[in-house]
């Protein structure tokens, strides 16, 4: 086994190690480099005359190609989740009923959300009024008065 075949085997081992690392620490990132290493190893086996520089350039090119293909794949076929708003705190607040702690005057005031206070925009409301969050942008909330049913 000459040095170029050793390099091909090392590329294949590297691909397996990267794929194993992806399984141990999932993040859907190392899998692309594992695929690029495996492709580079296979090409190095098929074309033993490839220099180390050509192998490294091929690995870089295949890495870029697999990352771009993966990026497009996940854009076109997003992974379904049970909680799509998991990392979007503001969006999770929409629909919540909160209390005005600084009167909404001139369209701006403050509301209590959990144990914190947020800037709120909406129609004028006195302190203590209950309002519903209808939107959020830039760290402030949009609110509307809670409508109560009358008999």
Automatic annotation (TrEMBL):
Boundaries of every NfeD-like C-terminal domain copy: 92-145
Membrane topology note: Multi-pass membrane protein
Transmembrane segments: 6-24, 53-70
GO cellular component: plasma membrane
InterPro entries, per database record: Membrane_assoc_protease (IPR052165), NA-bd_OB-fold (IPR012340), NfeD-like_C (IPR002810)
Subcellular compartments: Membrane
Keyword field: Membrane, Transmembrane, Transmembrane helix
Pfam families xrefs: NfeD (PF01957)
Protein name as catalogued: NfeD-like C-terminal domain-containing protein
